[in-house]
């Protein structure tokens, strides 16, 4: 099978060079940490996997169409249970959320677009996106920031991981007006959740052969809240003597990422900082359209884009880059342990390195449809296996 695939993609491999091809094939298929619960057993050839699909807002539905088209062309045995959950389109309710949760509890795995949260306050502080994360306890968000082989940026050959606690912190949805004109917004940091995300980060580093974990904080100002997070990380670090541990203040971290991102390996941080750093780091390698992400609880895994951006201005214009969502779908297959089909899905990303099939955000002229069509055609014409 692997040999047949290599022959199928040989024209592209020659154009890239063997080292570039090997770099792409190995990197893009090693993003899912598989740290939540036990790993899935090796998939049978006739197995069909049910996956919850939430297209979300903005270009999310278009990206999900791309995923479905590619999976169909690759004969990938995944059956999607699709649910439309959107606050901005008035397609969100507690009843719909319950249906999504029921599907997730059965399937354990989901692929999701961005569920956009309106800025207007309408009597409910917690968004449906946050409710979904809390009810499934999706505490760990993982974003693997990789340079795309063949696409040049200011910093090439980047390879770092951002791990974010995403069930508390500044996004606790606890705000109130204490007196007219004065708003209090509570930031919640707990020892248990801080230690849990720190352990997740060190376990990830251990499993992936990474050498350093850096805790990102603002403990010089928020001495109690971020101080507790920092203390928890330091305590957990003592359990992993082979992993180097450092800490850095969030504002300095932003500057260092722009100036010298190579000093970082795995970064772990509270909620808000992770949101900011995810987007900053995505900008270093090409933008929101190329970085995949995933969220984990002890039971569930949700695959999505790393920089959560609905890109509403692109809806219907056929210009969205499907790369991040397709990479996330490949990571989902890896999580499901669909090993043979994962190779098929991973091989298609050779198109990321060819200027002939590159979307506008990466300086090309191809549309979303052009990119997906090229991938689909190559999968359809691959040798039988």
TrEMBL record:
<keyword id="KW-0472">Membrane</keyword>
<dbReference type="GO" id="GO:0016616">
    <property type="term" value="F:oxidoreductase activity, acting on the CH-OH group of donors, NAD or NADP as acceptor"/>
</dbReference>
<dbReference type="InterPro" id="IPR019818">
    <property type="entry name" value="IsoCit/isopropylmalate_DH_CS"/>
</dbReference>
<dbReference type="Pfam" id="PF00180">
    <property type="entry name" value="Iso_dh"/>
</dbReference>
<protein>
    <recommendedName>
        <fullName>Isocitrate dehydrogenase [NAD] subunit, mitochondrial</fullName>
    </recommendedName>
</protein>
<dbReference type="GO" id="GO:0006099">
    <property type="term" value="P:tricarboxylic acid cycle"/>
</dbReference>
<keyword id="KW-0496">Mitochondrion</keyword>
<dbReference type="InterPro" id="IPR004434">
    <property type="entry name" value="Isocitrate_DH_NAD"/>
</dbReference>
<dbReference type="InterPro" id="IPR024084">
    <property type="entry name" value="IsoPropMal-DH-like_dom"/>
</dbReference>
<comment type="similarity">
    <text>Belongs to the isocitrate and isopropylmalate dehydrogenases family.</text>
</comment>
<feature type="transmembrane region" description="Helical">
    <location>
        <begin position="335"/>
        <end position="353"/>
    </location>
</feature>
<dbReference type="GO" id="GO:0051287">
    <property type="term" value="F:NAD binding"/>
</dbReference>
<keyword id="KW-0812">Transmembrane</keyword>
<dbReference type="GO" id="GO:0006102">
    <property type="term" value="P:isocitrate metabolic process"/>
</dbReference>
<dbReference type="GO" id="GO:0005739">
    <property type="term" value="C:mitochondrion"/>
</dbReference>
<keyword id="KW-0809">Transit peptide</keyword>
<dbReference type="GO" id="GO:0000287">
    <property type="term" value="F:magnesium ion binding"/>
</dbReference>
<keyword id="KW-0816">Tricarboxylic acid cycle</keyword>
<comment type="subunit">
    <text>Heterooligomer of subunits alpha (IDH3A), beta (IDH3B), and gamma (IDH3G) in the apparent ratio of 2:1:1. The heterodimer containing one IDH3A and one IDH3B subunit and the heterodimer containing one IDH3A and one IDH3G subunit assemble into a heterotetramer (which contains two subunits of IDH3A, one of IDH3B and one of IDH3G) and further into the heterooctamer.</text>
</comment>
<feature type="domain" description="Isopropylmalate dehydrogenase-like">
    <location>
        <begin position="50"/>
        <end position="375"/>
    </location>
</feature>
<comment type="function">
    <text>Plays a structural role to facilitate the assembly and ensure the full activity of the enzyme catalyzing the decarboxylation of isocitrate (ICT) into alpha-ketoglutarate. The heterodimer composed of the alpha (IDH3A) and beta (IDH3B) subunits and the heterodimer composed of the alpha (IDH3A) and gamma (IDH3G) subunits, have considerable basal activity but the full activity of the heterotetramer (containing two subunits of IDH3A, one of IDH3B and one of IDH3G) requires the assembly and cooperative function of both heterodimers.</text>
</comment>
<keyword id="KW-1133">Transmembrane helix</keyword>
